[in-house]
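Dear colleagues,

As part of the handover before I leave the project, I'm documenting each prediction I ran so the next person doesn't have to rerun anything. This entry is a single chain, and its sequence is reproduced below.
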Amino acid sequence: QQAVQAARERAAYHRGVMRTTTFATMVVAVFAILAWYAFDQAKKAREERGKSEKAEVAAKKDRDDALAEKQRADEQSAIAKAVNDFLQNDLLLQADTRQQASRGFKLELELTVKEALRRASQSVGQRFTNQPLVEAEIRNTLGEAFWGVGEAKLAIPQFEQAGALRRKFLGFDHPLTLRSMNDLVRAYWSA
């Protein structure tokens, strides 16, 4: 009987060890699965954070580009408005003898385009002291007008000054700077 009892106790002990081992194995497996799941979730979170940071950088760049483009458009609009104002008030209104008198010019009933351009070109430097790109655009326009009426020699200083201002404020490679340089060469060629 003792042997049977001992055999039963050993069998119970082995079953207990097996149950404990099985339970411990299951606990380790559950922890392993949880650890893998946590690692996988952390990896996905890092990837999402990286995508989010890239999207944020791209959005900031797009915003900065849009703001820069708006600023360029505003500058071009201001330049166009100033040029239009100059052409209307400083150039075309000179045909009015009252305007000639109010500006201290000799009254000329038959004012020529060349004389009106010459008179208008005298005030550009003082009028646009703090607006170098406006001055450059107006000088380039005056240069083209002088060149167009056959006064290439009068166009040269306008193109020179427009080019100098554009080189200083836009850089040597800017299309408007290159345009002024091209116009200057054309005027020298015609002079």
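The longest helix spans residues 2-91. The mean pLDDT is 89.

All the best with the project,
I.
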